[in-house]
């Protein structure tokens, strides 16, 4: 599908203040990955832990892969007191951010060399709270735009992507700059990170709760179940509770399979699961690779964090323009191929050593392909969601992508060791990993083109 729209008209969408809130929440969503990802990996490396141990420590990210299990509750349960003050979406966001802040502060008090187990437990708590925060933030983003504003979907995806990378990469430069300063250690750095997360949480007090008819639709579905499935049940309380559980736990997933068909739905899930596998393997070992090749903490902070963040933010908007004009599905095809090809540049670094200009070039190319693919994927997942079950369905889809990014990539260190430290071959393998996902995408392309056309036609229909 193509859309006749000028660049000036498209970028005028970003004047919408709601997109600014999506950007800030994106930062809050990406920042916890710094806490238990790149910074934790660097801390563990400086403590002398092995590559395999560092890779396995990434299992804490498993929370992002299973958050769909409790995501339906985020659509239905109202937090006492907080819900009255902030509404459903904002109250859950603030609630989870509180746990992230407190636990990050506690990490600043841990001697990781003697109490690795406690550090792992605190990291798991951060991961669970952050994964739950992501459910609420993603639902907030989708609910913020009305169904007749689907033309702004890719713009919202660009803001979410650039926000995430601002939190992960730009704010993620701070700890690496501090790490090379005299008198600073990782405990002091985590104290600073806790303060930074607290500042990000202030956005909850500024934004407005999105309007939604979700509760009405869910209530109607509950009534339908009571009048059909439980019409002969004389116990009204049991009937009501059972209907509530069905709408909360079963309906979000059954609706997705019913709307797409079982075969197509399974192909969709397979594509989402496999699309980012190669990038996940690369990302989990990137800090270890940079250190082993010979780059300093300052160079890592400047290029891998700050440089990647800036490039990703810039190209997120350009990638969103392409996806808006030519279609999300085509954007996924092309960005997937480009993303795989960019991994080969890391193999070049592995062969020639710590050449700074090559590092900079790799950051630019990798940032571009990541931005393009991320914007396309965020818009794609949003397009697949039904507004009655935003949190549950988006979390189900996103968690599959996170599964390959976390649980599978936790074996990345083992793979490098099995290859006897052959980093060049490792990066070639990460490039090949994207091929199976593109095969699934090709097989269901006709269904997706129809779905995308319906998605963008909602505005004219209304």
From TrEMBL:
PANTHER family named among the record's database cross-references: MAJOR FACILITATOR SUPERFAMILY DOMAIN-CONTAINING PROTEIN 3, SOLUTE CARRIER FAMILY 33 ACETYL-COA TRANSPORTER -RELATED
Record-level Gene Ontology MF annotations: transmembrane transporter activity
Transmembrane segments: 20-43, 49-70, 91-110, 116-132, 153-177, 189-207, 266-290, 302-322, 331-352, 358-382, 394-416, 422-444
Lineage: Bacteria, Pseudomonadati, Pseudomonadota, Gammaproteobacteria, Alteromonadales
InterPro entries from the UniProt entry: AmpG_permease/AT-1, MFS, MFS_dom, MFS_trans_sf
Segments forming domain Major facilitator superfamily (MFS) profile: 18-448
Localisation per UniProt entry: Membrane
Name listed for the protein in its UniProt record: MFS transporter, PAT family, beta-lactamase induction signal transducer AmpG
Entry-linked NCBIfam families: 2A0125
């Amino acid at each position: 599908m193509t859309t006749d729209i000028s660049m000036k008209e498209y970028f005028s969408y970003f004047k919408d203040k709601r997109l600014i809130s999506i950007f800030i929440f994106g930062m809050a969503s990406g920042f916890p990955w710094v806490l238990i990802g790149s910074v934790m990996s660097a801390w563990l490396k400086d403590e002398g832990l092995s590559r395999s141990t560092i890779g396995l420590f990434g299992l804490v990210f498993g929370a992002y892969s299973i958050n769909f299990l409790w995501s339906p509750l985020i659509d239905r349960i109202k937090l006492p007191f907080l819900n009255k003050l902030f509404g459903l979406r904002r109250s859950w966001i603030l609630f989870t951010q509180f746990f992230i802040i407190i636990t990050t502060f506690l990490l600043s008090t841990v001697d990781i060399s003697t109490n690795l187990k406690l550090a792992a437990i605190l990291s798991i708590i951060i991961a669970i709270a952050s994964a739950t925060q992501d459910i609420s933030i993603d639902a907030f983003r989708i609910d913020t735009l009305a169904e007749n504003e689907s033309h702004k979907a890719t713009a919202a995806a660009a803001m979410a992507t650039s926000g995430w990378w601002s939190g992960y990469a730009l704010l993620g430069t701070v700890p690496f700059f501090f790490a090379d300063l005299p008198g600073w250690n990782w405990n002091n750095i985590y104290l600073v990170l806790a303060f930074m997360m607290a500042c990000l949480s202030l956005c909850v007090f500024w934004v407005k709760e999105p309007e939604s008819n979700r509760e009405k639709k869910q209530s109607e579905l509950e009534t339908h179940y009571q009048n059909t499935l439980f019409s002969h049940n004389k116990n009204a309380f049991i009937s009501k509770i059972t209907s509530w559980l069905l709408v909360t736990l079963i309906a979000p997933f059954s609706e997705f399979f019913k709307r797409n068909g079982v075969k197509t739905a399974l192909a969709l899930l397979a594509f989402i699961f496999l699309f980012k596998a190669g990038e996940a393997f690369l990302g989990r070992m990137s800090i270890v690779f940079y250190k082993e090749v010979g780059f300093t903490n300052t160079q890592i902070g400047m290029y891998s964090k700050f440089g990647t963040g800036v490039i990703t933010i810039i190209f997120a908007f350009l990638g969103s323009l392409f996806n808006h004009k030519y279609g999300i599905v085509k954007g996924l095809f092309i960005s997937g191929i480009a993303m795989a090809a960019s991994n080969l540049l890391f193999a070049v670094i592995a062969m020639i050593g710590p050449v700074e200009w090559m590092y900079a070039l790799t950051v630019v190319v990798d940032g571009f392909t990541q931005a393009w693919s991320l914007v396309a994927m965020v818009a794609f997942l949003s397009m697949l969601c039904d507004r009655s079950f935003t949190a549950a369905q988006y979390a189900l889809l996103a968690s599959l992508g996170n599964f390959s990014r976390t649980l599978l990539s936790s074996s990345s260190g083992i793979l490098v060791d099995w290859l006897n430290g052959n980093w060049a071959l490792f990066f070639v393998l990460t490039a090949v990993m994207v091929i199976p996902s593109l095969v699934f995408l090709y097989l269901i392309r006709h269904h997706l083109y129809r779905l995308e056309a319906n998605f963008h036609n909602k505005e004219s229909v209304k």
